[in-house]
Amino acid sequence: MKMKLTKFQDLSLEEKKEVLNWRNHPDIRKWMFDKNEISLENHLNFIQNMPKNRIYLKAEDLGVINFKISKDTVELGIHKNPEKKRVGNILLKTTIDYAFNELKAKKIVLYVFKDNIKAINLYKKFGFREVDKKDNLIKMELIKNEELKTGSPKNQKIFWGIEENGE
Ligand SMILES: CC(C)(COP(=O)(O)OP(=O)(O)OC[C@H]1O[C@@H](n2cnc3c(N)ncnc32)[C@H](O)[C@@H]1OP(=O)(O)O)[C@@H](O)C(=O)NCCC(=O)NCCS
Predict the structure, then answer these.
(1) What total of structural domains would you count in the chain?
(2) What mean pLDDT is predicted for residues 107-133?
(3) pTM
(4) CATH number of the domain to which 36 belongs
C-alpha cells in the first residue's frame, strides 16, 4: 500500500481539527519555529488562504509533511502524530520521494533546532548534510540522487513494503 497523502484543503473539518491537535501537542510544538498554540480560527484561515508555494499533506494517521517551493528547491517540514512511535523513517522517506518525484525538486533544504538531536539523526540517515549554522538553527540539504535510499537496514523492509504493495 502506498502512503495516502491528503492536502489540508481536502480534509474534513474533523481531520483539520485532528492535524491541528497534533501540531499543538507540547511534544510537537516545542520543536516548531512558532512554539505558540495555533487557534482553530487561524488554522482554518491558513488552510483557506494557503499560499501557492506551500503544500501541507496529512500522511494517513502518522503525521504531517509540508513543503515551501521556490524554483527547483523545496524546504521541508515534518511532524508526527504525537501518539505514534517510530514513524520518523516512513514520514521522511515519503517526504523525500514526494519532493523529488512529484515536485521535481533538485534540492531539499530544511532548518532544524540544534538540540533536536532525534530529527538531526533522522535527516543524516537519509543523506542530509549540514550546510549552515546560525544561532540555534542548523540548515541541512539533500541534493537529488544523493539521497540514501534505504535509511538503516532494519527499516528497508518497511520502505519496500510501502512502495511495492498496492501500486
Ligand atoms: C522528528 C520525528 C518526525 C521523528 O519521528 P519518531 O517516530 O519520533 O522517530 P523514530 O522513532 O522513527 O526515529 C527515527 C530516527 O531518529 C533517530 N532517533 C530516534 N530517537 C532518537 C534519540 N532518542 N536520540 C537520537 N536519535 C534518535 C534515529 O536515527 C532513528 O532512526 P532508527 O530507526 O535507525 O533508530 C518526530 O519525533 C516529530 O514529529 N518530532 C516533533 C517535530 C519535529 O521535531 N520535526 C522536525 C522539525 S525540523
Answers:
(1) 1
(2) 97
(3) 0.90
(4) 3.40.630.30
